[in-house]
Specification:
Structural class: alpha+beta
Strand order of the largest sheet: 1-2-4-3
Oligomer: single chain
Strand content: 15-25%
Radius of gyration: 16 Å
Number of helices: 4
Amino acid sequence: MSESSFPRSARLLRPAEFKRVFDNTELRGSSPHLLVLATPNEQDQARIGFVLAKKQIKRAVDRNRIKRLVRESFRHQQHKMAALDFVVLARSGLAELDNQQIREMIDALWFRLKRPSHDRQANGNRKKRRQSGR
């Protein structure tokens, strides 16, 4: 199988898999239009699932376009990612963005989520120290 393929095993398919990510979120990346939640999995690869509500993105053609763009970006990035389950949630206004803007936004989120965990912990500790010093 090629390095940039997108097999069925790279997708979250069952409600229980989504529930596990929602209940045990360890990583989170957000932008004004997208939210990405992640939790470690027991697989040897990253997996992705989508929650694109009709309430947020009215037209099916827009929901499909967004899924296609995010899936393509994930397909190119998945071999650089740890074994995590990702759930991508859409927020209002995402459908108004053009393809290039969506691509740049999701690539920036993947970059933030790929940082080593000690960087995130160090940043989190720095924030806590700053707040407690006031």
